[in-house]
């Protein structure tokens, strides 16, 4: 058995029933084969075994009281995967589907993503199996306060700095920050994605979506193509999707579809961005309400989706942006996209493509930007927020955006060069995994057996 096969088999035994975590590790190890073959010291130093094991995992009970006075109990998680390159950094996800395997896959991906930004960041992830849907504002606050009451023991501006992810936006970060400050008496830069008047950075809210579009522009540029005039589909209707749509519209592309957990909106004229924000951010409703306002848009409910696929990927497009959740794009979706002459897939979400879809897209010849490179703009601007907090400063939108554009272009160059160096030019999945791993692994060797 090869080194990677041995490690995967051991992981299967030691982390049973963590399918998404295993999926993320398997993809990375597959990409690393040529690097591991040419550098025996990674094996001698047991780098793979060390990297698949989080430095620390905190699993905790979150007890809180709902509006009816009933006691509620949820599972809370923070997985501090790696502090090799800097303080642990990564978002918090509140979603009923959260479990240890989901948080571990997200934390594992975050380590390499953060390394690719070139910024001093470790990697981790956290969250809870809490379902915010249908909860009142005071219930959300109660939950956030109970969650932070435990989590605050493990945070610090140079230790671990969470941010948002699915189900956690500025409102939740506000309640979490308020509770941290109440418990510790410190106004620390201990969360990113804060409001602009209390330590937040301009551009953080927009950063993941905008950065994803900048990454797509880089992928197209090397193919002598541009985004202007391109028809785009964007899955999801949350923070990442909305800001992807916003940036696409501002540079003259035509996003024609978005989706949420209830269905897909197809709007051939181009998504009405203000209406999308009103329905999803202000009213916190479902996309059906969008179609009620625009008679030229069609709502396709989840019940009408093709077997084993997502309706949005059947809509012909030039560029597809999966921006909702893991494993939302299957092999048959990928085949449909390519058959419909899509020229690029650029991932705003974390691990949105299944392994079969990843392998199909990588061999299809279209431009394919994997999440750990393409969606790194969010965490990159989080680091800019940490820098501003440390210096007690606030930068202009222009300054943050210029840095974000430069970071995304540099990530694209880094992953493209690593792919070419290890024999798979143009394969940005291999490039991202190799470049991210090499940076963390070399630093781990330098820091000794810890
Ligand atoms: P939000 O909670 O703001 O939005 C998530 C969107 O995806 C919602 O529209 C939601 O539908 C939809 N969605 C979530 N889960 C499912 C599901 N199981 N099936 C169908 N639709 C689903 O989250 P974000 O926009 O922040 O995150 C989206 C993705 O981007 C995630 O993969 C996240 O990890 C990743 N990401 C986020 C970053 C950030 O800065 N926020 C940074 C980098 C990556 P509904 O509205 O009906 O709930
Ligand atoms: O997946 C991600 O990169 C995020 N959810 C953002 C993490 C961060 O710390 O800004």
- List ligands, each type once: NADPH dihydro-nicotinamide-adenine-dinucleotide phosphate, (2Z)-2-iminopentanedioic acid
Shape field: globular
Taken in chain order, the helices and strands follow as HHHHEEEHEHEHHEHEEHHEEHEHEHHHH
Which fold name fills CATH's third level, the topology of the largest domain? Rossmann fold
Provide the helix percentage.
40-55%
Uncertain runs are none
Number of helices: 17
CATH superfamily of the largest domain: Leucine Dehydrogenase, chain A, domain 1
Number of domains: 2
Major sheet: 7 strands, mixed
Radius of gyration from the alpha-carbon trace, in angstroms: 21 Å
Tell me the structural class: alpha/beta
How many E strands? 12
Walk me through this protein's architecture.
There is one protein chain. Helices cover 48% and strands 15% of the residues. It is α/β, with parallel strands linked by helices and 450 residues long. The chain has 2 domains: 184 residues, 3-Layer(aba) Sandwich (Rossmann fold); 163 residues, NAD(P)-binding Rossmann-like Domain (Rossmann fold). The strands form 2 sheets. The chain has a 7-stranded mixed beta sheet with strand order 9-8-7-6-10-11-12. It has a 5-stranded mixed beta sheet with strand order 1-2-4-3-5, with helices on both faces. Strand 3, helix 5 and strand 4 form a beta-alpha-beta unit. The protein binds NADPH dihydro-nicotinamide-adenine-dinucleotide phosphate and (2Z)-2-iminopentanedioic acid (2IT). (2Z)-2-iminopentanedioic acid (2IT) binds next to strand 3, helix 5 and helix 15. NADPH dihydro-nicotinamide-adenine-dinucleotide phosphate binds next to helix 9.
């Amino acid at each position: 058995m090869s080194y990677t096969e041995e490690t995967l088999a051991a992981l299967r035994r030691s982390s049973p029933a963590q399918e998404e975590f295993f999926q993320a590790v398997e993809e990375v190890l597959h990409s690393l084969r040529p690097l591991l073959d040419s550098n025996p010291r990674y094996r001698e130093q047991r780098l793979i075994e060390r990297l698949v094991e989080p430095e620390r995992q905190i699993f905790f009970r979150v007890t809180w009281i709902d509006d009816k006075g009933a006691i509620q109990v949820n599972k809370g998680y923070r997985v501090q995967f790696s502090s090799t390159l800097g303080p642990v950094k990564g978002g918090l996800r509140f979603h009923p589907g959260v479990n240890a395997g989901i948080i571990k896959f997200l934390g594992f991906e975050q380590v390499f993503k953060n390394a690719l930004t070139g910024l001093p960041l470790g990697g981790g992830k956290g969250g809870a199996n809490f379902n915010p849907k249908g909860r009142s504002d005071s219930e959300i606050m109660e939950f956030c306060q109970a969650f932070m009451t435990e989590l605050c023991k493990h945070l610090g501006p140079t230790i671990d700095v969470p941010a948002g992810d699915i189900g956690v936006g500025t409102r939740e970060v506000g309640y979490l920050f308020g509770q941290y400050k109440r418990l510790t008496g410190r106004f620390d830069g201990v969360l990113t994605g804060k409001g602009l008047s209390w330590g937040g950075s301009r551009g953080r809210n927009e950063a993941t979506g905008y950065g994803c579009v900048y990454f797509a522009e880089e992928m197209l540029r090397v193919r002598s193509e541009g985004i202007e005039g391109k028809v785009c589909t964007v899955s999801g209707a949350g923070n990442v999707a909305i800001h992807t749509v916003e940036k696409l519209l501002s540079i003259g592309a035509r996003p024609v579809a978005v989706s949420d957990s209830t269905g897909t909106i197809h709007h051939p004229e181009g998504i009405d961005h203000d209406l999308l924000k009103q329905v999803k951010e202000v009213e916190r409703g479902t996309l059906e309400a969008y179609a009620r306002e625009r008679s030229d848009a069609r709502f396709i409910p989840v019940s009408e989706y093709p077997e084993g696929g997502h309706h949005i990927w059947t809509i012909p497009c030039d560029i597809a942006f999966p921006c909702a959740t893991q494993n939302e794009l299957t092999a048959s979706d990928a085949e449909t996209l390519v058959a419909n002459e899509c020229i690029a897939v650029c991932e705003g979400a974390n691990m949105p493509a299944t392994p079969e879809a990843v392998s199909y897209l990588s061999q299809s010849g279209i431009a394919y930007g994997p999440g750990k490179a393409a969606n790194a703009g969010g965490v990159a601007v989080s680091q800019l927020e940490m820098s501003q907090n440390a210096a007690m400063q606030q930068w202009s939108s222009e300054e943050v955006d210029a840095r974000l554009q430069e970071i995304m272009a540099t990530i694209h160059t880094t992953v493209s060069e690593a792919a070419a160096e290890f024999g798979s030019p143009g394969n940005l999945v291999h490039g991202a995994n190799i470049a991210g791993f090499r940076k963390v692994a070399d630093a781990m060797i330098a820091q000794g057996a810890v």
